[in-house]
Amino acid sequence: MTVSRLAAPVGSRPVDDPMPDPSACRSLPEMELAMVTPDPVAPAALPAHPTSTRQRRQRWLLMFGALILLGAGIGLRGPTPSDEPRFALVAHQMVESGNWLIPHRGTDWYADKPPTFMAMQAFSYVVTGNWWIAFLLPSLLASLGTLWLIYDLARRFWGHRVGMYAALGLLCTVQFVFQAKRGQIDPTVTFFITLANYGLLRHFLSGPDWRAFWLGCFAAGLGIITKGVGFLAFLMFLPWVYACRHQWPHAADARGSLARWLGGFVAFMAAIALWIVPLMLYVHAHDNATTRAYLEDIFLNQTVHRYVHPWNSFNPPWFYLEVIFTSWLPLSLALPAIAPAWWRRLRERDARFLLPLVWIVLVIVFFSLTRAKRDVYIMPALPMLALCAAPFLEDALQRRWLQWAVAGFMTVLAVMLLGAGVDALLFRPAFAARLVASHQLGDDATSLWFMLIVAGALALLCVAVFRLRRAGLAALCGLAAIWMTWGLWGAPVLAKAGSPARVVRRVESAIGPQATLAVVAWKEEIPLAFSRRVKDFGFERPWHQQLARAIVWQRGDPAHRWVLIMADVMAPCVNRADAQDMGVTSGQDWQLFRFDAVAPACRSGDVPRGKVEDWGGRDYLH
Fold first, then answer.
1. Cα dihedral angle (319, 320, 323, 325), rounded to 10 degrees?
2. What's the pLDDT at 312?
């Protein structure tokens, strides 16, 4: 959310004096003058000539603190469902096969996402030699990079102090920190889109700066080859054109030759070409049905079709309003106080607010038009919100109602954690029993309850120490305590309890080192947990077809070929009495069998279709 005073006397606040209306977009000499003129939107207490040593110390302290907070727990746990094991498995196979161009999930070509993020995880493993570090490292570095970009952009527009508020406001939000601690793709694509916005805004508001513009276009291309949504950065052109046409202050006169504008297109395409050119050369050399299906899937099905005709993650049109007021806490608590200041700045025609605010709205509208909605889709808009909020956060936190709101939020959160831990430890309520059963916590449950108690107590202590007047600092320290406790304690406990490691040990003990193992109806965390090579028969192939191929495969060496299968898929072809129970993981019961457990009617590979044939259908059924 925000922090206490960094360098100014108590009671200082941003100034909202009207800006003079210019007659046209500024020329370069005018902009150079503006860069050395005090900015009326910056806090009045910002020193006119702050010491560079002090600024550098605060800046590096910010990044070091962010590194400690976001990196807490890295290397202490393995990938956990739902998305982490999938990306980690693809990265594993990149390293093992040497094929970093075509992602694979088992024997299937993985077309859900371009290979960039998984390649970053694979490269992180090459550098560190530790998968528990490697699968989280790209998210950590991308999040630190996003923080730095937002700080630097706010510093260029309004000064160092506002830059600190922008970064700390972002660092407090629940979604940003939670995703930074996950081995998922969204922090990386958020970084690339923020870098694109960084370059475009420097060019549009502090320019002309063609190098920054080309950098932004290149970063947008990297966003395309990461998740396909890097083009969203170019929506920034719309408010900039409007601001220039209506002669808004701070809208830079970035007119240039056609060659310079085309340079942005070249930079954009150059980034995309890093993946597309090798891919097309590979497809040309290996032209077959598989390569053509891969191209159609990744360029059409996973983009246009997924947007126009989605098949999962359905949510109502107002879904993203819920995300903003829940996942963007506690920064969203300040929006009622900040929105009037934004309105004043827009009435005064300040392009520094028009461009990022309109861009945020356009991004939310874009993702609201499709029926498929997930909270992480609008995460790239969060850094821009922190940027726009930063000049007014200090003033907003002087308002009594917001101090009560922030302190109340932290108190409620702390009491919930503390109360849940005490209740689960002493009284074993129904919610605790369900959590223990669903995550196979066993004896680790007690450790998790103590973690909740400690996290809640630390957060409550922060509220008590900093009190109402320094509610922003209470939120910063309280949330930091919760996230540190979660990263170093809670997440490793849950990851260990939900890990397939116990099932893997039982399987290894049952089959011995000389046997060969295959999986049917599998999830990504299963083969990822084995140190040996595990055979599969496709991931997206219907389960009865996987089982049919597994039976045919077993027939080639019945004594040494074993199959690990989800129990619900066995009937009617595998006799459960002849199989071995391996336990529960991924929320399912797993059985191990050899060819002698297969019913005679199915030994030729003739397996009837089941009621549920894939994980999507099973998730829907349940």
1. -100
2. 84
Indicate the residue type of 461: L
Exposure of 159 in the CB half-sphere (CA atoms within 13 A): 24
Q: How far apart are CA 116 and CA 119, in angstroms?
A: 5
Q: What is the pTM of this model?
A: 0.89
Tokens of 481: 């305590």
By DSSP bridging, strand 580-585 and strand 588-593 are antiparallel
Closest CA to 170 of 361, 389, 348, 21: 389
pLDDT at residue number 400: 95
Q: How many CB atoms lie within 10 A of CB 342?
A: 18
At 588, phi and psi to the nearest 5? Answer: -130, 155
- With 50 as the cut, is the pLDDT of residue 358 above it? yes
Q: CB-based contacts of 557: which residues, under 8 Å, 6+ apart? A: 516
Residue among 176, 179, 228, 222 at smallest CA distance from 199: 222
- Plot region of 129 (φ>0 → left; ψ -120 to 50 → alpha; else → beta): left
Whole-angstrom CA distances from 466 to 4, 12, 135, 177, 403 are: 10, 19, 37, 22, 11
In this prediction, residues 62-72 reach a mean pLDDT of: 97
| Enclosing H/E stretch for 259 | helix 258-285
369 close to 341: Cβ distance less than 8 angstroms: no
Asked whether 467 and 474 are in contact (CB, 8 A), the reply is: yes
CA distance linking residue 118 with residue 87, whole number of Å: 6
Token match 């947008």: residue?
Answer: 220
- Number of other CB atoms surrounding residue 298 within 10 Å: 20
Enumerate residues 6+ apart whose C-beta is below 8 A from 24.
Answer: 247, 253
Q: Which residue has the tokens 């457990």?
A: 597
Closest CA to 167 of 471, 354, 383: 383
Specify whether the backbone of 428 is left (phi greater than 0), alpha (psi in -120 to 50) or beta.
left
Contact indicator for 353, 16 with CB cutoff of 8 Å: no
* DSSP E strand stretches across 445-523: 516-520
- Structure-block tokens of residue 413: 């959160």
Contact between residue 45 and residue 8 where contact means Cβ atoms under 8 Å apart: yes
Run of H or E including 585: strand 580-585
Query: Strand, coil or helix: what is 562?
Result: strand
Contacts of 36 (CB under 8 A, 6+ apart): none
Cis, bond preceding 492 (omega within 30 deg of 0): no
pLDDT computed for residue 616 by the predictor: 57
End-to-end CA distance of the chain, in Å? 38
Contact 88, 121 (CB under 8 A): yes
- What are the residue ranges spanned by the domains of the chain? 28-37+136-279+307-396, 401-498, 501-621
**d(Cα 24, Cα 186) in Å, to the nearest integer?**
39
Q: Residue 539's pLDDT is what?
A: 93
How many residues does the structure list for the chain? 622
Closest Cα partner for 124 from 141, 112, 110?
141
Q: 64: helix, coil or strand?
A: helix
pLDDT digits (tens, 9 = 90+) for 560-573: 999 999 999 998 99
Tell me the average pLDDT across 458-482: 95
Per-residue pLDDT tens digits for 323-342: 999 999 999 999 999 999 99
Q: How far apart are CA 486 and CA 480, in angstroms?
A: 10
How many alpha carbons fall within 13 Å on the CB side of residue 37? Answer: 11
